[in-house]
Amino acid sequence: MISRRACLALCLVGLRIENSTARAQSKQPASLRLVLKGYDPVAYFTDAMPIPGKPEYEAVYDEARYRFASAQHLELFKADPDRYAPQYAGSCAAAVVAGVKIEAEPEHWLIVDGKLFVFAGAAGVNKMRANPAEMIAKGQENWKTLVVAPHR
Known about the structure:
Elements: H1 4-31, H2 43-46, E1 54-61, E2 64-68, H3 71-79, H4 81-84, H5 93-97, E3 105-112, E4 115-119, H6 122-130, H7 132-146
Antiparallel strand pairs: 1-2, 3-4
Helix pairs in contact: 6-7
């Protein structure tokens, strides 16, 4: 028969293990990259402008975190993430074309053929407007190797 003291000790050990597991699981999504610096990818399509997302409306897709301005935008994204997720996982499209992977600035963006492209600055937007087909083709080719590279 187990004493009350031994039973209490076992319960406390179990509680510690459960709490540490819960903390580890809660840290896992937070360690994933936050795409678009937390801006809502759906808003570019529905509101035609960048809108900051809120932490309470967050989803993980393709090993990255996305935030949304509303529960409705979160649900739209969940229903069709490929439609709303930025190309090159939110990396600067012009940099990807140049063979480099850097974070984009959410305020510099363009939708081409129903796809969201974001850039590090206005110059990238202008280059994409001038020759979208060539930039997209080169970017898709470079992305095959850059996808696994870390951001600079």
